[in-house]
Amino acid sequence: MKAGKRDDASSITRAGATIGTSSPGTAQPGRILHWNFFIGGHLSASVPVRLVEQTPAGQLVWMESGTPMWHTALPRGATHLRDIAPQERPAEGYPVVAGRWPMGNALFYQPTDAAHSVLWLFGRRQRFRGWYVNLERRVHHGDDIDIADHELDINVAPDRSWQWKDEESFAEKTGHPAYWTAEEAAAIRTEGARVARLAEAGTFPFDGSWCDFRPPRTWRTPPRPPVPRHPLL
């Protein structure tokens, strides 16, 4: 859908083309999936999300602020898993504890066979705040969406100006066996540059579509999912 108008909710507009939906069943809108976020092979968070739309081109999922979730129980003094060196983490992974998703509402576009996702970020009163490009490796296992984070990301403002995020920490992790080789790092940056060009050109997903998205009123906040099936990727 374009900002300010609504198109048929059974299609995703990509690069000027409209792709029809796949068959019903597993692609049923509203279906609860589990977004599992891994850093250096260790689980950081597991958050239930709702499927908005699924086509051969990719899928859209909705993450609501405050959703019951699981997150890593970090050792005292640690603020984020990404700041703990892999060799200092327990071989079996950290335990998880119950929590709630602390960030704002977001609509995720996860293009098929691509090493990134694009988030529409929403603030108070569902006001669009810009896009966020998460560079990642994504694997689907039934209702589980397992994300291996690639650290390097891109912030895209509503006017489509953009900038790299976490370049320094990305460089520090490059070459470590828990992360990526120098060759893989080059491919990750190339993927990011390709998406940035889409933003510069104002093509999907940066064409203004979905900026006015509102989840259906019938959707309730998903319950906390079962304990994640594995703490390691």
Quick tags:
12% helix, 2 helices, mainly beta, seven-stranded mixed beta barrel
Please give a structural write-up:
The chain is mainly beta. The chain has two helices and twelve strands. Strands 3-4-5-8-9-10-11 form a seven-stranded mixed barrel. A two-stranded antiparallel sheet has the order 1-2. A hairpin with a 2-residue loop joins strand 1 and strand 2. The longest helix has 20 residues. The protein is globular and about 45 Å long. The N terminus is likely disordered.
Low-pLDDT segments, ≥5 res: 1-11, 13-25
Principal-axis shape equals globular
- Supply Rg: 18 Å
How many helices does DSSP assign?
Answer: 2
Helix fraction?
A: 10-25%
Strand content: 35-45%
Question: Which sequence of SSEs, written as H and E, runs from N to C?
Answer: EEEEEEEEEEEEHH
Characterize the largest beta sheet: strand count, sense, and whether it forms a barrel. Answer: 7 strands, mixed, barrel
Mean pLDDT: 90
Query: Helices and strands: which structural class?
Result: mainly beta
Query: What strand line-up does the widest sheet have?
Result: 3-4-5-8-9-10-11
Tell me how many strands there are.
12
